[in-house]
Design a protein that fits this description.
16% of the residues lie in helices and 20% in strands. The protein is α/β, with parallel strands linked by helices and 337 residues long. The protein has one domain. It has a six-stranded mixed sheet. It has a two-stranded antiparallel ribbon with strand order 2-10. Helix 1 runs parallel beside helix 5. The longest helix is centred in the last third of the chain and has 19 residues. Keywords: Secreted, Signal. This is Protein EXORDIUM. It comes from Adiantum capillus-veneris (Maidenhair fern).
Length: 337
């Protein structure tokens, strides 16, 4: 799977409002948690610097107006757990076209995805404006076991593509593993990743996200859980209340992050900053930022509902989500919803 990011906090340095400490990324990108704040840190002293993504001329997922998504559920997921993810994808339909969240009060999931239309290839074609769930399949019997290597994910993606009889280069295959499945480097260095597999001599994009609920919610579902490596005996930090389910809300956050990266840098040669083998991408460049006034260890100013749950985007079926900040290619900043 390539290099891997580290969840351990880096040495303390001058913090930034728009760019937490970067971590290495396996394949083309891996979703990582931000580092916790230093003791005595004040956001007023933060320096407003940030990432600067560059277009390197490669293809993006822009060949069709609709980006088809195929989900492969690996392991056991309850119906309510599946519903969280399915409602997220239903919410990505273009609101102006009567999508599932067309009646959702802003900020909405579809408006979050709207930033993707600002990413264009060398022909001027933008990332697909609409994301559609084209199919899903389940592997409840753990056909490849409960301990997976990086190569196993590629095999699973290839099997899924063959099952759906699709080699569409503008589609993406989303592998989601249940909380009792251990994946190489999961929790130790990554929460999710994306890459490419060859199907009928065509390069097809895939991504993997794991449910961290019972393994490392503090790493992969922050800020709905606190990092396990921190000592909170004398601290006042508390986790935010998740709007749906801690593990599945973490899954959605990481799906959103890696989906944005896969759409704008599917082959590792489009939009990114830094070394192409360890790039910062559309969402991972803004890791840890979910709202205005964010700083390392603090997600920013968020909305809350009557139950006290925190979110920043409304979606289909009155669903609430917390989505990562995206890098805005025109303003060239990390711009929260």
């Amino acid at each position: 799977m390539g290099g891997s990011p580290s969840f351990l906090p880096p040495p303390q340095r001058e913090p930034s409002l728009s760019h937490t400490a970067p971590c290495l990324r396996a394949h083309h990108a891996a979703a990582c948690m931000p580092s916790p704040p230093a003791h005595g840190f004040s956001p007023k002293k933060a320096i407003k610097t940030g990432p600067n993504l560059t277009y390197h001329g490669g293809p993006i997922l822009s060949t069709k107006p609709i980006l088809d998504v195929y989900i492969c559920w690996y392991g056991h997921f309850s119906k309510p757990q599946r519903r969280v993810v399915l409602d997220f994808f239903a919410s990505l339909k273009k609101a102006s076209g009567g999508g599932a969240d067309a009646d959702a009060t802003a900020p909405s999931v579809s408006s979050w995805w709207g930033t993707m239309s600002l990413y264009k290839d060398k022909r001027g074609n933008a990332v697909s404006s609409t994301v559609k769930l084209a199919g899903q399949m389940s592997d409840r019997k753990y056909s490849m076991g409960k301990q997976l290597k990086g190569a196993d994910l590629e095999t699973m993606a290839a099997r899924a593509a063959n099952s759906f009889a699709s080699d569409d280069p503008n589609a993406i295959y989303v592998l989601i593993t249940s909380e009792n499945v251990m994946v190489e480097d999961f929790c130790e260095s990554q929460c999710a990743t994306h890459g490419i597999v060859k199907i009928k001599k065509k390069a097809v994009a895939f991504m993997w996200v794991g449910n961290s609920a019972s393994q490392c919610p503090g790493q992969c579902a922050w800020p709905f859980a606190l990092p396990q490596f921190m000592d909170y005996s004398s601290a006042t930090e508390t986790a935010l209340k998740a709007p749906n389910d801690v593990g599945m809300d973490g899954v959605v956050m990481n799906i959103a992050s890696i989906l944005a990266g896969a759409a704008t840098n599917p082959h590792g040669n489009a939009y990114y900053e830094g070394n192409p083998s360890v790039p910062l991408e559309a969402a991972t460049a803004c890791a840890g930022i979910f709202g205005p006034n964010a700083y390392p260890g603090a997600p920013g100013t968020l909305l809350s509902d009557s139950t006290g749950s925190s979110f920043n985007a409304r979606g289909a079926n009155s669903r609430r989500f917390l989505l990562p900040c995206l890098w805005h290619p025109l303003l060239r900043i990390c711009k929260p919803l």
